């Protein structure tokens, strides 16, 4: 199986075997952190990282990943590129492809990333758009597999906003045979097209994807409870309205966790807003795996770079 030259935009076009290869490679890279034979896979290669939004984990984990694979990274703030003065995305893509071996981009508009990929002759990796966060989902799957030893047949309850993180988790989780239950307030359900594709994926993999407005029902006997912020980047003006609609029913707190399986793990992509989508006691409590989950961004990103570039 060869993933060289592929873009990573949504994970939708990755088969179960391809996702398994990415996760197994990440696990090996983690086990052999400074000893892997992939440690020189980016030697002589340069990766550009365009960020139109802030980032802690994604930026730092990608920079360290590129460094540990012996490559060079260039951080390209969108404000400093001619893009900010109206140079077309297509022209930017064609020019950057002549210099770089891969482009990582966090963008305010998913269609811009699609256009960049269409015009780029080197792999484009989506580092978050308002629609998808595929690199996060890979780290999430690796973490679940590490903690619970398998993916197939497990029940994951996503509680909160039907956002980018939720979409990528639905698509990749369903592909890997996870049962995905999504609970959101009415009006904040995941995108219908993504739900339809995830359901088709689930059917092919003997699993299911369900969307409900009842958080308590969703987490019943769940192996994994997952949440993300109620107010994503770019939504700050909706903050008061969203908090009023999400709280208290969609907060991951101790009484919600009690409804899940006793061995359940609690996940959050971070950054977290304590006592909004998750209580301080739960994120700091014994079910929480958020720090290992954050660490796994590094290992899955190394796998993505080593296999795609
Ligand atoms: N989870 C995640 O993508 O975090 P950053 O926004 O800090 O990159
Ligand atoms: N849904 C969040 C994820 C941050 C990593 C956002 O888009 O802001």
Task: Provide a quick synopsis of the model.
With 309 residues, this protein is of the alpha/beta class. The chain has two domains: 11-132 and 295-308, 3-Layer(aba) Sandwich (Rossmann fold); 136-293, Rossmann fold. It is built from twelve helices and nine strands.
What do these coordinates show?
- There is one protein chain.
- With 309 residues, this protein is of the alpha/beta class.
- 42% of the residues lie in helices and 14% in strands.
- The chain has helices spanning 16-31, 57-68, 89-99, 110-119, 134-148, 164-175, 192-204, 215-219, 239-246, 254-257, 280-283, 290-308; strands at residues 46-51, 72-77, 102-106, 124-126, 155-159, 179-183, 209-212, 224-227, 265-268.
- The strands form 2 sheets. A 5-stranded parallel β-sheet has the order 7-6-5-8-9. Strands 2-1-3-4 form a 4-stranded parallel β-sheet, with helices on both faces.
- Helix 5 crosses helix 6 (164-175).
- The two termini are 14 Å apart.
- The relative contact order is 0.16.
- The mean pLDDT is 97.
- Phosphoric acid mono(formamide)ester is lined by residues 55-58, 128, 136, 269-271.
List the helices and strands and how they pair.
Elements: H1 16-31, E1 46-51, H2 57-68, E2 72-77, H3 89-99, E3 102-106, H4 110-119, E4 124-126, H5 134-148, E5 155-159, H6 164-175, E6 179-183, H7 192-204, E7 209-212, H8 215-219, E8 224-227, H9 239-246, H10 254-257, E9 265-268, H11 280-283, H12 290-308
Parallel strand pairs: 1-2, 1-3, 3-4, 5-6, 5-8, 6-7, 8-9
Helix pairs in contact: 1-5, 1-12, 2-12, 3-4, 5-6, 5-12, 6-7
The structure holds phosphoric acid mono(formamide)ester (CP) and norvaline (NVA).
